[in-house]
TrEMBL record, chain A:
Residues annotated as domain ACT: 30-105
Protein name: Acetolactate synthase small subunit
Pfam families cross-referenced by the UniProt entry: ACT_AHAS_ss (PF22629), ALS_ss_C (PF10369)
Pathway: Amino-acid biosynthesis; L-isoleucine biosynthesis; L-isoleucine from 2-oxobutanoate: step 1/4; Amino-acid biosynthesis; L-valine biosynthesis; L-valine from pyruvate: step 1/4
PANTHER family: ACETOLACTATE SYNTHASE SMALL SUBUNIT, ACETOLACTATE SYNTHASE SMALL SUBUNIT 1, CHLOROPLASTIC
Family listed: Belongs to the acetolactate synthase small subunit family.
E.C. number: 2.2.1.6
GO biological process assignments: isoleucine biosynthetic process; L-valine biosynthetic process
Keywords: Amino-acid biosynthesis, Branched-chain amino acid biosynthesis, Transferase
Quaternary data: Dimer of large and small chains.
Function text: Catalyzes the conversion of 2 pyruvate molecules into acetolactate in the first common step of the biosynthetic pathway of the branched-amino acids such as leucine, isoleucine, and valine.
CDD domains listed in its UniProt record: ACT_AHAS
Organism of origin: Paracoccus lutimaris
Biological classification of the source: Bacteria, Pseudomonadati, Pseudomonadota, Alphaproteobacteria, Rhodobacterales
Reactions mediated catalytically: 2 pyruvate + H(+) = (2S)-2-acetolactate + CO2
Automatic annotation (TrEMBL), chain B:
Enzyme class: transferase
Source organism of the structure: Paracoccus lutimaris
Chain ranges of the Thiamine pyrophosphate enzyme TPP-binding domain: 397-544
UniProt keywords, alphabetically: Amino-acid biosynthesis, Branched-chain amino acid biosynthesis, Magnesium, Metal-binding, Thiamine pyrophosphate, Transferase
Coiled coil location: none
Location of the Thiamine pyrophosphate enzyme central domain: 195-331
Pathway entry: Amino-acid biosynthesis; L-valine biosynthesis; L-valine from pyruvate: step 1/4; Amino-acid biosynthesis; L-isoleucine biosynthesis; L-isoleucine from 2-oxobutanoate: step 1/4
GO terms classed as biological process: isoleucine biosynthetic process; L-valine biosynthetic process
UniProt EC number: 2.2.1.6
Name under which the protein is recorded: Acetolactate synthase
GO cellular component terms, semicolon-separated: acetolactate synthase complex
Length: 186, 584
């Protein structure tokens, strides 16, 4: 299946898009949105999602080109195929939005999230937490006699798994960045 | 050449450079420096409104009747919030507007200052784009960019919020040609392969239909011309949404009337039964589609639209073409001609036989009366007495709006101003003034209901002050007619709050505003009353007391498909042979 590459002004449905437009299956898609880093641009994007009733599972944003004042917003959203197409078209309509990429259908991509997990405990539980952290290649970024803060990078699923394992060992707090994603290859 | 000037002067300079001749506005503390500049020049006319909502609707009327962007200037806080309804109206109907709002000085922003509102935040969802200017050097360039964005692609309203200290400060003026090409450049040309595919479908179609909308009007008069040429050359029937009336002439051979909830039977049946639907600048609004699951089940659907988000939003189309209607129609016509001007003439002939049978149902029939004025009759007489003058028609929202769309005939684009998407009661009176200001010598009529009209009646003051001889044709049933109709049909005849009590005497009201009015209730005097309205040199309120319980038919009840229309009381046999004599 060919990639769906939605440029402004392009048709949003190519003849090679073989997904059933009437499907009611809910799909998760990761969208990369390149925007002018101007005042209010994030509010426009978020307002679009809340105003039109779309879902946001995670959203990250940072300036990626300081001289060109471009920011990259990575959004993980859910919806039926037609809703996903509509979200992309609506994003493309926002004036400071330059490009909208659907990384889920445009080919393979890497998705990473960073998480900080605080695990409080003593004795055997503390040792077990360290052991599991090692398996997950999480690093200790803060330590007291009764707690660790682990830093871990990976897919959201990996972070979920790590959190599940840490919960019985004294997971007391966590902070996650949301997904940053890039297409693989040149 | 460096040109230093104050922000306030820049506003005037930029508007002048953009060719603006008229601004609709209302002064206030945060825009006083700009008003001071307006005072000191004569190139740009300022129309002083009575309420900021009126200013925006006037600018809409100006924009729709000219094809140029409308310009509005209002103050901060309440000035800006009062403009919100107009902005939303313009966004839904794709009307190009540039709205300038004053703002408290930058150092007071965020302090809950006097007449401070988060105008950018409030108007973000109801503008195509908006800007807060914090540096006078940015002002002129932003105004030029604003005109570009308002008028290119799918048009819409934009807003520039200008703090008072930015207006006072001095900065560098840049002209429209000095700014870099804006990055916002929507594609105009459609994909030629897709257009060729559409032409192939057109050559074979047995039951084709052009379903046209406001996009044809927005694309410019050339697009309307191309649509006429294409429809007349192919012999395909043309229906239109409320927003697209006038793009193809009502007197044209291929015209089968407006479609939709209160559209014509033949138009809706043809939409339901067609085998090729060509949507041209129309967006499958819920007033058009009825029940989506049963919408035109057997057709191949092609859609031409400049906004990719309009495609596959509600109805899945088989052949989307993203581009400007005018450009795409031009290519379509060229390709169709180059391929030998082929159509399926046998199929088309059969199709027209079918359409004629639907037309024979006479869906607009109504029972006329010799004692009380029927709204349909009033509009037929208005049509008969004004058609030769090619009037600009504005409407308010409700039954009268639908009757106007059914009974008035539009032969030209840009002559019909109505609030289609938002359905804003109070739109028509100011819109008629805006159209009249743009066309001082033309006949401009607002077809109104009494309840809608009262919502912005203060603008009669504007009409009188600026000698805009707008004709207010009020179909007065002392009811919120459309609400009453729905309560009758859907809410067990419980008429909750849908009557207009304590109405003003419209004739005295006209006199109080310094113009003329007349009330008419006898069908025999109607022509004379309309003639008096037309002959009077100035704004006129004609209060037409009509049948109070008339319902608007035909009607697709919400949730029903096109082929399940209610044809109404008047389509029963007794009505058609009735004594009224003036049945259509």
């Amino acid at each position: 299946m060919a990639a769906l590459n939605i440029h402004k002004g392009a048709t949003s449905h190519s003849a090679y898009d073989l997904r059933d437009p009437h499907s009611q299956t809910i799909e998760s898609h990761t969208l990369a949105v390149l925007v002018d880093n101007e005042a209010g641009v994030l509010a426009r994007v978020i307002g679009l999602f809340s105003g039109r009733g779309y879902n946001i599972d995670s959203l990250t944003v940072a300036e990626v080109d300081h001289s060109g004042h471009r920011s990259r917003i990575t959004i993980v959203t859910r919806g039926t195929p037609s809703v996903i197409e509509q979200i992309k078209a609506q994003l493309g309509r926002i004036v400071p939005v330059h490009e909208v990429h659907d990384l889920t259908v445009e080919g393979p991509s890497v998705e990473r999230e960073l998480g900080l997990f605080k695990v409080s405990g003593k004795g055997e539980k503390r040792v077990e937490a360290l052991r599991i952290a090692e398996i997950f290649r999480a690093s200790v970024v803060d330590s007291t006699l009764e707690s660790f803060v682990f830093e871990i990078t990976g897919t959201p699923e990996k972070l979920d798994a790590f959190a599940d394992l840490m919960r019985p060992l004294g997971l007391s707090d966590q902070a996650r960045t949301g997904v940053a994603a890039l297409a693989r290859g040149a | 050449m460096s040109r230093q000037m104050t922000g306030a002067r820049m506003v005037i300079e930029a508007l002048r450079d953009q060719g603006v001749d008229t601004v609709f506005g209302y002064p206030g503390g945060a825009v006083l420096p700009i008003y001071d500049e307006i005072f000191q020049q004569n190139d740009i006319k300022h129309v002083l409104v009575r309420h900021e909502q009126g200013a925006v609707h006037m600018a809409e009327g100006y924009a729709r009747s000219t094809g140029k962007p409308g310009v509005v200037l209002v103050t901060s806080g309440p000035g800006a919030t009062n403009a919100v309804t107009g902005l939303t109206d313009a966004l839904l109907d794709s009307i190009p507007l540039v709205v300038l709002t004053g703002q408290v000085p930058t150092f007071l922003i965020g302090t809950d200052g006097f007449q401070e509102a988060d105008t950018i935040g409030i108007t973000r969802p109801c503008t195509k784009h908006n800007w807060l200017i914090k540096d006078t050097d940015e002002l002129a360039g932003t105004i030029h960019k604003a005109f570009h964005i308002a008028t290119s692609g799918r048009p819409g309203p934009v807003l520039i919020d200008i703090p008072k200290d930015v207006q006072f400060a001095t900065g560098e003026y840049v002209g429209p040609k000095q700014i870099e090409t804006p990055s916002y450049q929507p594609a105009k040309k459609g994909d030629l392969a897709a257009i060729t595919k559409l032409v192939e479908l057109m050559e074979k179609a047995e039951r084709p239909i052009f379903y046209t909308g406001g996009g044809v009007i927005n694309s410019g008069t050339a697009a309307s011309q191309l649509l006429r040429e294409l429809a007349d050359a192919t012999g395909f029937p043309v229906t239109s949404t409320l927003m697209g009336l006038g793009a193809y002439p009502a007197s044209g051979k291929r015209w089968i009337g407006m479609l939709g909830m209160h559209g014509l039977y033949e138009a809706n049946m043809a939409m339901h039964d067609c085998d090729l639907m060509i949507a041209v600048g129309a967006r499958f609004d819920d007033r058009i589609t009825g029940r989506v699951a049963d919408f035109s089940p057997g057709s191949v659907k092609a859609q031409i639209d400049i906004d990719p988000s309009s495609i596959n939003k509600i109805i899945h189309v088989d052949l989307p073409i993203v581009g400007d209607v005018g450009h795409v129609l031009e290519d379509m016509l060229k390709i169709w001609k180059a391929r030998g001007r082929k159509t399926n003439s046998a199929g088309l002939q059969q199709w027209w036989v079918q359409i004629e049978q639907w037309k024979a149902v006479n869906c607009l029939a109504y029972r006329n009366s010799e004692t009380v004025i029927k709204p349909q009759y009033a509009l037929q007489r208005l049509q008969a007495l004004t058609a030769a003058r090619k009037p600009y028609i504005a409407t308010e929202v409700g039954q009268h709006q639908m009757w106007a769309a059914q009974f008035l005939h539009f032969d030209d684009p840009n002559h019909w101003m109505t609030s289609g998407g938002l359905g804003t009661m109070g739109y028509g009176l100011p819109a008629s003034i805006g159209a009249q200001v743009a066309h001082p010598d033309a006949l401009v009529i607002n077809v109104a209901g009494e309840a809608s009209w009262l919502m912005n009646m203060q603008e009669m003051g504007t009409a009188v002050q600026f000698r805009a001889p707008v004709k207010q044709f009020i179909l007065n049933n002392e009811r919120l007619g459309m609400v009453r109709q729905w309560q009758q049909l859907l809410h067990g005849e419980r008429y909750s709050q849908s009557w207009s009590d304590s109405l003003p005497d419209f004739v005295k009201l006209a006199e109080a505003f310094g113009c003329r009015g007349r009330t008419v209730s006898d069908p025999a005097e109607l022509d004379d009353a309309i003639q008096e309205m037309l002959d009077y040199d100035g704004p006129f309120i004609l209060d037409v007391l009509i049948e109070k319980h008339e319902n608007c038919f035909p009607m697709i009840p919400s949730g029903k498909p096109h082929n399940e229309m209610l044809l109404g009381e008047a389509s029963t046999e007794g009505a058609i042979t009735g004594a009224g004599g003036a049945l259509v």
